[in-house]
Amino acid sequence: MYFCGISGESPQDPVISAKSGHVYERRLILKYITDNGTEPLTGDKLEESDLLTIKANPKAAPPRPPTATSIPTLLHSLQSEWDALVLETFALRQQYNNTRQELSYALYAQDAASRVIARLIRERDAAREALSNVQATLGVTSAPANGGDVDMAEEGGEGAPQEGVLPKEIVDRIDKTQQALSATRKKRKVPAGYTSVAGVKTFTAKHTIPSLHSPSPAGINSIALSRLNPGQFVTGGNDKIVQLYDRGTDKVLATLKGHTKRVNQVAFREHEGDPTLVLSAGADKVAKVWAHDEASGEYQPRATIRTHKSDLTGVVVHPTSALVILSSLDRTYSLHSLSDFAQVYHSAPSEDPFTALGVHPDGALLALGTQTSKIQICDVRSGEVAAYITPPEATTGPFSVNTLSFSENGYHLLAPDSSSSVAIWDLRKMKAAHSIALNESFKVNKVLYDWSAHYFGVAGNEGVRLYAHKTWEELIRLDDVADVTDIVFGEEGREIWATSGREVRIWGVPE
Fold this sequence. Notes:
Strand order of the largest sheet: 4-13-12-11-10
Structural class: alpha+beta
Shape: elongated
């Protein structure tokens, strides 16, 4: 008994391949040769002349021809469909076996590549460590390559300035910036068309941008608006991602990765003549810097700053636009150049961890919030503590000053003076000009002065509230959103943006 190598059934008209010795049904093998020109089982070239008819003896009685049935046309059609199905099944079986072999090879190659990459990373890290040791021996600090992601040394690294004072050229630049900004600030007038206190009272909901960042872990911690490209903003979230978004097109322009824990703070550096930078500070003790590439329009990684030993709680661009300031729970703050991202100053450890960071509009002073209710006012140029601001002891005991904001005129500092109230401190007298009590259940997450210093916002778990400066009148409550983590004022004070969960909510003057 013979069986066809294609259909697996006993052939009615058997033939045998002279090249391989395999048996086939004549009509099936002829169709296969016509379509492919090869033998099905071996893949060798095969022609009709290579087929030999098998003669059986005694001859079996052949089946009745289809024409002898009552429905010959139907049977012929079914037979043709069956032949096509058998051929297709055979081809699929061959393709399946080939695909399995290719997949096995691809998985093997991927595993080998992963092992090679892991080995190269280990070798790279070992080479960096060896280079650092050589530089320490020679007293040399390497310069960062243009366009590269510079991995800055940790605190205590070789060649990095530690406790002390800033280099003279940087102090001179800060002094020059302070003099210029101070002179301008004293003569500054609020531009025509800037939103007034009366306009703030009319704020209504204008837009909601949902589903930003990943749903697990969900939450946006910080937002910064672009000054040069209104409508574009950057956010940092619990998902370790920094996202750049365009409100006009409702599209994510860039997803910037690199942090290994949540991103606590984000900021823009936009200065004429310099590339736009996006900066972030995370709970992984790392600050990241990305630069905008004019040619491609994308943001490329430029530096990774590993100066601190605990969570970073603040990242602020200095008014010179040449420095970035970082604060940390390790009880120190540091200054870094935005040209080569080198550390230029690192403060001595304070008594308390720093939980918030702000820079004076003139650039000469820093305000640092702590976990023990105190605020340190430091001179940027010398690193000395100029003053301590200590609110009256709250009935609930010490609290964490997790946010603060200088007024643009430089005279006042806005910060919590308890877990559910905020105070406006007069920096000329170093005492509280006024304190605003909120609900006992209100938890302050963010305070912010607008550019005109005519009003300010307070955000927390019960929404956003806007107050007038000097009169301390509550202008409006935006309580249609809860658990607000950050706020920022829009162009000319016409809008206020807030982050809550995975959303960015926008209120503003009605059109």
